[in-house]
Amino acid sequence: MGKRRWNPRPGIRGKILICFGILLAFFISLTLIMQNEAVRLSKEYSTSLAHYHLVHRFRLDLEALHNLADRYLREPMSATPESVFSAIASLNAEYASLLPLSDTSIKVEFEIRATGYGLDVYLPLVSRAVNLRASRATDYYQLFVRADRIFGYLNTYLNRALSQLMQQGEETYAALARRAEAVNRTILVSMVLTGIAAVVAIVLVAQYITSPLRHLAKEAEKLAGGDLEAGIVEVHTKDEVETLAKAFSTMARSIRDMVEGLREKAELERLLHEEELALVSMGKALREAQFMNLQEQMKPHFLFNALNTIARSSLLESAPRTEALALSLARLLRALLGDSGPKAALAAELALAEDYLEFQKARFGERLAWHIDVPEGLRRVSVPRLFLQPLVENAVRHGLEPKMEGGTVRIKARKREDSLLLWISDDGVGMSDEKLKELRARIRMASNRKTGSPGRNSDGAAASTANGEELLAGTGIGIANLVLRLAILFPERFDFSIDAVPGSGTKIRIEMPIEERLQ
Question: By three-state DSSP, how is residue 384 classified?
Fold first, then answer.
């Protein structure tokens, strides 16, 4: 199915949405402007009113402090010195909130500053008078009389500040009212003009859309009456209507061509399906033959090493150890010569690897150790048959055998989503960078092979077979064999990587899909 071409011009729905979108955006903008202006006006008026209440509350608190001090000086039992001092502290803190009002006007600033200077004299006089009265001195009331005179000045300053704030509030309210009236009038006129423009735009858009549709409907009636020559409509709206008109003019001819085309397509698909089934069957048979051929190459190689080990152990040990080795060999032989299917349970592969390690223990003694870390839930996972033992053998022969003190082989398995991760590592002699680079190149050659369809080379021979022989010729039977088998079994998804450090050991990582679990 071809990709749908993107048309930069809007269609019918786009034109309608653009029209109504513009109108809606304009109405929303007007509403937001009106709301924003109302909030701003209300905020300015609230700020002016709050300034007035702030000064008025301070004046009331100052008067309450003066009355409380006077009552205490006249009747000490009616109040306590602590209450007077607490009121003085509160008044000092409240005066700090009046300082920002100095920015409103010069007159208000003068009155606030004068109030502050007066408080600097008034409050200490009240405090001294209260202290003298509490200590039963006789001249306390003279101080309060001086404070009372300053209190009158403070009342005068605060009243003038209130008058100034009241006058500013009235001026602010009048200015805000004028601004609100102008904004409302502007918005009303804008909404009326927008409504008229909306009606005109809707009529024009409706006429623009429906006129070619009516013409097309008339041609459709002719076509329905059997006139296949009908349907030619010239429309240049650059939208769905133009597309419909062009398609309508060729519909009758397209129907005849389409019927014949569908018939030919069905026949072609049938032939292609039969050929695809034949290719799939051929590819499956080829993969099975490749796998069995590669797997059978493993048996003589391993049996030779196993028999050689038994022969040497028989010369050096008594019958019980030879019997144990023979039993291990029997299990190994059963695994090798038994069912030769392409897959086995991971538990069986681990058992085969352990039998091999037990067998090699007779040669290496305490120089050989191993550790297997595989969760029980993964031991029933299906894996390629005879893929683990060759890797363990490589670790023992090439990693630990050249090392005087021997070492340890480690096998670890984990599950990640729907994949099985395996690590086979040893702490042997490792390998040089040159050898590691060469081995990685061969691994990439094996993993990149297309084993599903063999292809042909220039000599007419099967290319996959030639590549496989070249791959195995340089490395023997082992890692290259295993990578080739993984490429055959899991052509779509598997990963094989190897890392080695000279003198520190080798580590192999394998990732393959978890396709089934065996009992």
Answer: strand
Integer Cα distance of 477 and 397 in angstroms: 13
Average pLDDT, 10 consecutive residues per value, the chain (519 residues): 53 72 77 75 76 86 86 82 86 83 80 85 85 80 84 86 80 77 79 81 75 73 73 67 70 55 77 69 52 55 60 59 61 59 87 88 88 92 88 91 92 93 94 91 76 39 37 49 83 88 93 78
Token pair 């190459």 is found at 297
Q: Which of 456, 390, 375 is nearest to 421 (CA)?
A: 375
Helix, strand or coil, per DSSP, at residue 297: coil
pTM of the model: 0.41
CA distance 453 to 287: 9
Is residue 312 within 8 Å of 509, Cβ to Cβ? no
Could you tell me the two tokens for 181?
A: 């009236």
Structural domains for the chain: 12-205 (1.20.120), 304-453+462-513 (3.30.565.10)
DSSP 433-490: HHHHHHHHHHHHHHHT---SS--B-TTSSBHHHHHHHHHHHHH-SSHHHHHHHHHHH-
Give the CA radius of gyration of the chain.
Answer: 50
